[in-house]
Amino acid sequence: MSKPIPVHASMDQFDTSKNQILVGGKTLDSISTILDKSVFYAYDKSIVKRQIERFHQAIPKQIKLHYAIKANPYLPLVNAMRDWVEGFDVASQKEMIMAVQSGMPVEDISFAGPSKQEGEIKAAIAAGVTLHVESELELSRAVQFGHELGILPIVAFRVNPAFELKASGMKMGGGPKQFGIDEERLMEILPSLNYQQMQFRGFHIYWGSQNLKEEAIIDAHNKTFELAQRLMDVTPVEVTTVNIGGGFGIPYFAGEKRLNLEPIGSNLEALLVQYPQLEKRELIIELGRFLVAEAGIYASKITDKKTSRGHTYLMTNGGLHHHLSNSGNFGQVIRKNYPVAIGNKMNMTADKEAVTAVGPLCTPLDTLADKMQLTDPQIGDWLVVYQSGAYGPTASPQDFLGHPHVVEIVL
Ligand SMILES: Cc1ncc(COP(=O)(O)O)c(C=O)c1O
Question: pTM of the predicted model, to two decimals?
Fold first, then answer.
């Protein structure tokens, strides 16, 4: 008996009622004509907005939503998001300049990163954004540069909590980590820092990423509030802001389900009651992929079709150099298929064929879809990879083998 075909939960966000994937109301052929390109990323603004609405419907109103630009730094998207979220998190000087120029108020921009260079620290101080300080030396550098520039650096500590995010492939807290300052050490230094030398804001407690288990996020929130309270208790100055992390994941693979935000929101409501002192602070959740990944597709053309010892291969003009994460080489241990479809043949009841879609690179790693059932795939059709709105072009080795870079569009 043949095994049932695994189903991706995440292929319902785009309009396919006319047998075609529409992005922002446009067919792939139209987008291709607009761009004069046959391989591209397209992002649908309405899907980003829907995702932000989902967040606000479930999460208590006083918790602010910040966007981590690293997930998708495509400038027109960042500029559009400026009006939809309450702040930006940046991870480099380039992202910081983007965030500042978008018009986002500087007090709502924070700069995190475990190895900030002197120029970056100075730039953050001069721009007036909040530095998420990740080591004691970084703090003394910030103080020194602030003194030289005649500006008090705006500082929050990134905390490496003692707890770990359960059920997550991307843990950024707990145990030894390059991120932030261990909570035990912070508890020691917080009482006696010279707060005159900085504008102190509070704490950034970031524990991980891409989590689809509500109970794991709830557990991390419980521990984050408890930790924030303990840190506040030993801090002799006012704590104005606590960033309580992010970590909301999206379903990439067959069998995964979308995160249910309702229990996470109800638990946060309860925590705000349980910790009245925290309730009075500015509280922030910082998300990247959750906001943008589902809004993006990567489209390439099938340019050849051949069989090798009974197996059918589709050759395309897109590949790993544009979309490393889809190839399975960006944090996956075992490669799994992203949701993939023939974008101009979306009638899901039509006959399917088992195929492997590959790109132009001379490496078996350059696989876009491995042994997937696709609808009547032919030369000239569009091969579309869903869940491609985050960690796409900027997380891919675009110069590898010298093929053209990919273009992007927001619709
Ligand atoms: C500090 C920080 N914030 C936000 C993010 C964004 O993560 P995600 O896109 O999974 O939400 C990351 C991911 O590396 C991060 O390190």
Answer: 0.95
